[in-house]
Amino acid sequence: MAKKKPQHQKQKSTSSTGSNSFEKNKPNTILCEAQVVEVLPNTKFKVLLKDFDTVIDATPSGKIRLNHIRILKGDFVTVELSTYDLTKGRIVFRHKTNKPSNFNNEQK
Questions:
Q1: Boundaries of every domain in the chain
Q2: What DSSP character marks residue 103?
Q3: Is the pLDDT confidence value at 83 over 70?
């Protein structure tokens, strides 16, 4: 008689994909608030970091691209920086209002 193959159960993923998943800090990353200063070709942006008062290059994350979220000059965004290279960032969230609640000192 033929032996039955064991039935394998699919494992459920433990990662949360909620709307606030950007707030979960990945290892070796820094989350910063920023304002888009300039829009460049090939979905690149120059953003002004609130915490460091520097302008860096940033690209949108995969979720931003997949959901076709438009990022314009003057938008306030949350940027994820790698601790290895602080000159490049990834835009992980675009704030719906013009100014996020914790963006106190707007640059003049």
A1: 25-94
A2: -
A3: yes
Question: What is the token pair recorded at 54?
Answer: 């520097």
The tokens for 102 are 């914790």
Instruction: Work out the number of other CB atoms within 10 angstroms of the CB of residue 45.
Output: 23
Q: Measuring CA to CA, which residue among 79, 81, 80, 76 is closest to residue 103?
A: 76
Q: Token pair of 39, please? A: 């829009």
Please tell me the class of the 25-94 domain: mainly beta
User: What predicted TM-score, i.e. pTM, was given to this entire model?
Assistant: 0.69
DSSP 37-88: EEEETTTEEEEEETTT--EEEEEE-HHHHHTT----TT-EEEEEEESS-TTE
Q: What is the mean pLDDT of residues 17-23?
A: 50
What are 25-70's pLDDT values in tens digits? 678 899 999 999 999 999 999 999 998 899 999 999 999 999 999 9
